[in-house]
Design a protein that fits this description.
Radius of gyration: 23 Å
CATH class of the largest domain: Alpha Beta
Oligomer: single chain
Distance between the termini: 68 Å
Strand order of the largest sheet: 17-18-16-15-21-22-23
Number of strands: 23
Helix content: 25-40%
CATH architecture of the largest domain: 2-Layer Sandwich
Number of helices: 17
Largest sheet: 7 strands, mixed
Number of domains: 2
CATH topology of the largest domain: Nucleotidyltransferase, domain 5
CATH superfamily of the largest domain: ATPase, nucleotide binding domain
Strand content: 15-25%
Structural class: alpha+beta
């Protein structure tokens, strides 16, 4: 008789608002339980405009609390956890001293203090060299943030033993080992794709010692094991392997089973994200989007995740919901009103770009616009449909940028967000792109847990996602001409704004 205990994997998603931990069955890959810590959002410290910091030790405290709660709520013993996976907020900087103590608060992803340093590096290193070797501009990423500390806080910089990304720090707290991944270094714009090594050109430009870079481990595989201290603090068993680590956007794509060239992961929350996998090491649109080593990237089989963000997405629809004071089942009601209006909203146009500068428009802040409003014709349903269509058109525009950057789009998988629950939105995108959109109900923490299982030999990751998470699919509509006409009308409103000379006040937006 088999007396072996039932086994599980735990996945963590270290966000800037909370830490989530999910429990996945080792045999079925079914997600069984998820906890979030804290219940309310974590505080982001902002002592100056454009600054955003968090205490990394707080992330660790919440990881430990979430782990213990997950085990207790499910009646599990620590020895039933076969391994863990870690997903994390990208682009942050964590620095530790030789004793493993945090030198200063983490400068997180949404902090913009290093923008000028990154822009200067792009110009001085050379745009062509940056795009050839880094596939990106150094911009406001981890390397530039570390350079900011070196320039403006030399007393802190001199204490640094190793710098890390947020997920590297959590792995360090579990194991005591300072490690990172190629994918992680690439998101910090510290990986030289042409020479397959940490970027000497970036380190030299900023005067950063190569010894500060952690040791590199594989994205999948035993990256370290839980130490005695890590076990005492987290509640896990000493020796439990850390099997996977990746930034949140590559991990979200993994959670949707997006691994191969031509596959695209889409999310439609407050902001929208398109993450397309390609095998191309060319980056011609490196200002409008970013290129990172995907979770399955290797030197012999390149897998690059092209990340394009659309700041003005679901926030436009949420603004309408709040402005119209729609309460109960509000998104469902909005879709019902919108569905009664014909494709194109009778030439009412909404541009959703009112959530800050948009990189796909060269960091222009175009604002949100409602155009061609006819007071004798347009009603509530028109504005709702025009908003949904406008956000969908922004996604289509973003996909056109991706295609210009050597990206084939053969398959689109989306998370079950508010926008992708809307037939109007999803069908508009599917029709104009000419591709089915399959929607899945999964999360980053679940993806990280399954990735740990994959690293541990789970046979069929794709089947696990399909069997446990699939919700529905949206096919291209037969009325493609009407959708194309509506998109053309939308572009006729957008293009003059893009072509306007940039105003000086844009610098302060």
């Amino acid at each position: 008789m088999d007396n072996q205990p039932h086994m599980y994997y735990i996945g963590f998603d270290i966000g800037s608002s909370s830490v989530k931990a999910s429990l996945v069955d080792a045999h079925t890959a079914k997600a069984l339980s998820t906890v979030q810590e804290p219940a309310s959002e974590m505080q982001i410290l902002s002592t100056q405009a454009g600054w955003a910091e968090q205490d990394p030790e707080l992330w660790w405290q919440y990881v430990c609390k979430a782990t213990k709660k997950l085990l207790k709520d499910n009646g599990l013993r620590a020895e039933q956890v076969k391994g863990i996976g870690i997903a994390y907020q990208m682009h942050g900087l964590v620095a530790i001293d030789p004793a493993g103590k945090v030198v200063r608060n983490s400068i997180i992803w949404c902090d913009s203090r290093a923008v000028v340093l990154g822009e200067d590096a792009f110009a001085q290193i050379g745009e062509a060299a940056c795009l050839e070797h880094l596939l990106n501009s150094p911009a406001n990423f981890t390397a530039s943030k570390l350079a900011w500390v070196k320039q403006y806080e030399p007393e802190c910089y001199d204490k640094i033993h190793k710098f890390m990304l947020p997920g590297d720090f959590i792995a360090f707290k579990f194991s005591g080992d300072c490690t990172t991944t190629i994918s992680g270094l690439s998101e910090g714009v510290l990986w030289d794709f042409k020479n397959s090594r940490p970027s000497k050109m970036v380190l030299d430009h900023y005067g950063i010692d190569r010894q500060l870079v952690p040791d590199i481990v594989e994205t999948f595989g035993v990256q370290g094991t839980v130490s005695k201290m890590g076990a005492q603090e987290s509640g896990l068993l000493k020796g439990t392997p850390i099997l996977y680590r990746a930034g949140d956007q590559p991990n979200n794509a993994l959670a949707l089973n997006v691994f191969q060239p031509g596959e695209v992961a889409a999310t439609g929350g407050t902001s929208g994200v398109l993450y397309a996998v390609t095998d191309s090491l060319e980056a011609t649109e490196g200002i409008k989007l970013n290129n990172f080593a995907h979770v399955n990237h290797s030197q012999t089989a390149p897998r690059i995740g092209k990340l394009l963000c659309i700041n003005g997405a679901g926030i436009q629809y949420r603004w309408l919901k709040d402005t119209l004071s729609l309460q109960e089942n509000s998104y469902q009601a909005m879709n019902t009103y919108a569905s009664k209006v014909p494709i194109g909203s009778e030439n009412l146009q909404v541009l959703p770009f009112g959530n800050g500068a948009e990189r796909m428009f060269d960091n222009r802040n175009l604002g949100s616009h409602i155009c061609n409003l006819n007071l004798n014709k347009h009603r509530q349903g028109h504005i709702l449909r025009a908003a949904l269509e406008g956000i969908a058109f922004a996604f289509v525009y973003g996909m056109e940028v991706l295609r210009k950057d050597h990206t084939e789009i053969k398959l689109i998988r989306a998370g079950n967000d508010n926008l992708f629950r809307s037939k109007i939105f999803a069908e508009t995108v599917a029709t104009l792109i000419g591709q089915e959109i399959a929607v899945y109900n999964t999360t980053g923490a679940i993806g990280a847990a399954r990735a740990a299982a994959k690293a541990d030999g789970m046979l069929d990751f794709g089947s696990a996602v399909a069997q446990n998470d699939y919700v529905e699919s949206f096919e291209p509509n037969q009325q493609k001409q009407e959708y194309a006409q509506a998109y053309g009308n939308w572009l006729s409103v957008l293009n003059p704004l893009i072509n306007e000379p940039q105003k000086k006040t844009d610098e302060n937006n």
